[in-house]
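Hi, here's the filled form for the chain we discussed.

Project: internal
Contact: R.S.
Residues: 488
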Amino acid sequence: MKVLIAEDDLISRNILEATLAKRGYEVIVTTDGTEAWETMKGDRQIQLAVLDWMMPGIDGVNLCKKLKAWDSEVFIYVLLLTARTRKEDVALGLNAGADDYITKPFSARELLARVSVGERMIRLQNQLTRHVRHLRQFDQKKNEFLAMVSHELRTPIAIMKGGVSLCLDGVAGDLTDTQTEVLTDTLESIDRLNRLVTDLLDLGKIESGKMTLHDKPVNLCELTEKVVKAYQKIADKAGVTLSADLPGESLILAVDEDKINQIFNNLLNNAFRFTPRGGCVSVGLSEDGDSVHCFVKDTGRGIAPADLPKVFSKFEQFGYEESGGSKGSGLGLAITKALVELHGGRIDVESKLGEGSVFTFSLQKNRLPKILIVDDEETMVELVQRFLENQYQYLAAHNGLDAVRMALEENPSLIVLDMMLPGINGYDVIRELKQHQGTAGVPIVINSAFPVDNERLKRMNENRPIPVLHKPLEPGMLQTTIKEMLAA
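And the returned structure, exactly as it came back:
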């Protein structure tokens, strides 16, 4: 294994080189941080670096930051060498991304032990990277296959539905009662198949980050009334009472009308599937401060407590045998949750066995785009907010791990991302976000004081270019870039 040493002190450098070479490591020696940085960039096989804290050029802490931010696809184990023993200094080095540290004066035994730990970590990390790469390739092929099959099924489904509908309309001649019944059942099966294909296509868009919203002012009261009217025939046929509880005044929200319709349709289909003849299904809206709550309530069999945590998971199905309801795709509620979260809302369910269920999703009245600003310098976070004024809601994270956590929890509209971060670097943040369906499509604007690898960024986000702004920021450029990314 290749080990890089960056040490300006001749005696320490010779001891390090001799000790590691004697153990069989291929040692590359540099005398300052700048030389070490150039050497690392020129040799991708070096994955373990022993860096002195205090040295000319780039010091060990800043060199560590640069190495950790350089290439997230290659794990570089950094062992920081320092004469500093204060806990604050140790914490500073580890927060810069160092994997371990060793204090001067050091013994050969301790050095070799710590390097050996690093070597094991590198082997494990390389194995994990290979496994993750294979899983991503498999997941991508799976999504491509589902999308291809779904698209290919669309045309024959349309032809079958058209033919059966024409027969039911009497185009091919009069039908007996038995023929009408058989064709009606066939048409219902075709509709179920069509819904499954639609669900698979939607799931593929959501997981690949290609599902986008087209917001416009929508009167939720009118939309809900139309949905209820559309389901009245279904309710009459099922022997279920359908009612609406709507406020007298209009509720205007900036939402994607088609997606809100889809949310209501999925929830109502689910309610009718589990509500027996003689039961009730109700739909309603209510206001609470800056939020609007939309609910679909049924008096069906309810959901067992053990099944509640799985309600919004993909391909989860339960309760069909007991209720006698038809079996769905197991995707409707998972897609519903994703669509609600794309709107910056949340969805919950309450249920009791034998009494029924209530699904409630909440939306914000004034949905200003939410910007997550990621920078380890508080002054830079404040500067970005001042540049953007009061046009957006703001969140802030000061390291890479917090950035990923907040993005998953808060569902931001856009992320302004520094690349040199404590913990994990900007490339790692992007990679982590792309692995989660809720954040895979969130637009990102890079804000960096250092050069970035544009080709690498392009590979990481092929669907949408990631614009790169350089510090010091220009207010006009930042504002224009963010508006363009949000409008795309």
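Let me know if anything looks off before we file it.
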